[in-house]
Amino acid sequence: MKIGLETESMHLWFQNQRMDILGFIDFAHELKCDGVMINIIKDFGLDEEWGCLGSDEPSHLQKIKQKLDEYGMYCEIDAKGFEYAKFEKIVEVCKALDAKIIRSYVPLTDITKKVKSASDGAYDDSKIDAYFNKDEFLESSEKIKALIPLLEQNDLKLAIENHEYQTSEDLLDLLKLIKHPNIGFLYDFGNSMMAYEDPIKACKNMAPYTFSTHCKDHIVFHEEGVDYVCGVPLGEGNVEIKHSIEILKSHGLGHLNVEQCFPYCATFKRKEGTGGVYKLGEGVFKLEEKLFEELKAMQYYYPQEVSEEALEKLLKLQREGCIKSVKYLREIVDSL
What we know:
11 strands, three-stranded antiparallel β-sheet, 17% strand, TIM Barrel, alpha/beta
């Protein structure tokens, strides 16, 4: 199986101008990765329209394509939502980079929230909490179906992610309304946990329709009355990574993308029992210790809001964790 690296794995480096997309591709090549997945969603310090990609200027895309060709790498795109006008632009980026898979998800947001800091949800309030309405979620099928001609004309696949709020059964219900071979799933190894669903259950349900992945590891900890799912380098958490890969491989998936969400914490988004898990403390939901005494859970992702010292510490740990994660995944892949 081939291994790719998602830009989110080095989000601190992008957000704080320590790395751009060309430098990221070089870094992925140093780790002997076979491809990259480029997140184009806005966030702190990133381009408003193109996120880690930086721009859709033809000259910029040409430089990226030249580097991908030099290293023999594949490319995939990580997007958000299903707005037709934005997808028209994304399709042009895919054509320029020879990307064949676009990941996206059904976004949830509350425009009435007024928050200023990134760690409180200034860039994406659903990172903290939002209301999940199943009917509204399924209504997104109409926007998704409107994209089918674009996908068909450009030989593209759309991979819908289990993005913290949705159980695998929610996603299967959505897919039943669409029924098209170019539209399937991106299986995220850990996101189902936020909906109280065991990742292996989600994997078994999603694997037959999975085009791509975010391979990650998680722990769970408790802080000041709140339970958090927390990203860690692959191999340092409790997600059954090898088991998930075995399931995915049995359904014909030929590549995995590392999305090391470290440092990152997320709240649980649905009620206990929603995905079949009613209490924490066992298996992948085993309770562990928090990672950093000097930071609150929701500050892990944006340590620059706390201090320069915290940022420098986590920049170093993120890079080290990324190297560990790719090495860990390669050892599993090579053993299968």
